[in-house]
Amino acid sequence: MKYIGEKNRKYTFWFCTLNRLGQHWPPTDLCGKSSYVLQIPKGLRAAYRHILKTILLGQMLSLFICGTAVTSQYLAEQYQVNTPMLQSFINYFLLLLVYTTMLAFRTGGDSLLQILKQRWWKYLFLGLADVEANYTIVKAYQYTTLTSVQLLDCFGIPVLMALSWFILRARYRLIHFIAVAVCLLGVGTMVGADILAGRQDSEGSDVVIGDVLVLLGASLYAISNVSEEYIVKNLSRVEFLGMVGLFGTIISGLQLAIVEHRDIMRIQWNWKIALLFAVFALCMFGLYSFMPVVIKVTSATSVNLGILTADLYSLFFGLFLFYYKFSGLYILSFVIIMVGFILYCSTPTRTAEPTAVPQPRSTGLDNAGLKLEENDSQTPVVTVQFTRDESVVVSTD
Asked: What is the pLDDT of residues 347-362, one digit of tens each?
């Protein structure tokens, strides 16, 4: 070992002790090591990369949702256009054009015909749940306040966790429940900031109806997201999007003709309104196309926690477009939600293995007798005969 001087012996001792523990420090003059960098285990680096990737992917989804919210609000406030079903229909029609067409050109077991023959009714219910989830949440704003929608919409997260437990066999740890509680605390902080900033709006015509619609929409979203995770991880992303596009177009088209045909006739079309519809459709199409990719990497619960920040992004845009009042609580709520999201992603959930029927360790007397009988029936019978000349004759049956 090389020493710089008597004065530095105690520091050198501790540096070299850290070096022996794998820290790769300090300089070569002290301990003869060539590396100065603190080495992080590969597993820990992979975990950091996974968490960072999950955060970035979740925030990209939040930006897509923010785009749909801002364009919808701009259409409603500036041009008095309230046509949520028409906007959803455009999105489903784009999914039909892209992904259902891809399925139509497939051959074999993954073709469109085979999928429809085997599980058309499942995708019918999935499309119905997805369409009505979008519609009920938007419809709820006519009856209740923004604050109620933001709070009650979080009801979908525990429903999603329960469905994942029973359907996807996901098993959570204590840190996951703590992380969800932290995220919901962040949502509560955001709602408090809305109240202080005067964004809670006046009460709707019937608060009870609005709250029921929000709870129904949150539950339908949970069903759709759990189904999406199962299909994406066990079948394919294209199949999910193609089937949702097909049945979503049919269901939303019928509902559009029934409930919104008068609202569509009253629209005074111009290039600005058309541009807002186009931006909404592209954001929604990007959200639907990109979400299966994120769910395959993470999970439906993780995605729903990550997109809780979408309302905050909408608020930041609203500061410039709709002249909202700013509050420091919005930044605090964003930090709290991100802390909870990182906590949830820090520990992966596990999947419970299907329980197998236990096999008996010992055959028992009865089973042993049966096995002997089976062996006797399969083994040829050997007969030994002795002749007078002391020769042995062996014959088999």
From this structure: 888 887 765 555 555 4
